[in-house]
UniProtKB/TrEMBL annotation:
This is FCRL2 protein. PROSITE patterns: IG_LIKE (PS50835). The lineage of its organism: Eukaryota, Metazoa, Chordata, Craniata, Vertebrata. Residues 84-124 are annotated as: Disordered. It comes from the Eukaryota. InterPro entries: Ig-like_dom, Ig-like_dom_sf, Ig-like_fold, Ig_sub. Residues 28-122 form the Ig-like domain. SMART domains: IG. It comes from Pheucticus melanocephalus.
C-alpha cells in the first residue's frame, strides 16, 4: 500500500436480480493511508566494538526497524551539531586521535526524526 492509494473506492458487478441482468454498485468507502514514523534506529560497525587502529577504516551502518516514505539519514559526532555525513552508511577513513568519541545516526521521514543510541568509537 502506498500513499497514492488513498481515496474513495467502490465496486461494480454485473448481476442478475432475479428479473434481469444489470450493473449494481456498492456504496463508496474512503481509504486513508498513513505514513509510519521511523523508529527503532540502530547502528552496526565494522570492525566490531567500534575500535579501529590508527590510520585504519571504520564503516558505520544505520538502519530503521520501522518507517515508510522516503527516509533520510544523517550522522553526528559527540557534542557537535555538525553534520558528518548522509546516507545509511558512513566511513571513517584514516582514523586519527580526534576521531575517537560517540557517533549517532538520525533517521527522518520528513515529519519526524528518530535517533540511534550513541556508538563509542575508539581509535587505538
Amino acid at each position: 500500500l502506498q500513499l497514492n492509494h488513498r481515496g474513495r473506492y467502490h465496486c461494480k458487478a454485473w448481476v442478475n436480480n432475479g428479473v434481469s441482468w444489470g450493473w449494481e454498485e456498492s456504496a463508496p468507502v474512503t481509504v486513508t493511508v498513513h505514513e509510519v514514523p521511523s523508529s527503532g534506529v540502530s547502528l552496526s560497525e565494522q570492525p566490531r566494538r567500534g575500535q579501529v587502529a590508527l590510520g585504519g577504516c571504520l564503516v558505520l551502518s544505520c538502519r530503521a526497524a520501522r518507517g515508510t516514505g522516503l527516509l533520510s539519514f544523517s550522522w553526528h559526532g559527540e557534542g557537535s551539531g555538525a553534520l558528518l555525513g548522509t546516507g545509511p552508511h558512513s566511513e571513517l577513513h584514516h582514523g586519527g586521535d580526534n576521531d575517537s568519541g560517540q557517533y549517532r545516526c538520525q533517521v527522518s521521514d520528513g515529519d519526524s526524526v528518530a535517533e540511534s543510541d550513541p556508538l563509542n568509537v575508539t581509535v587505538l
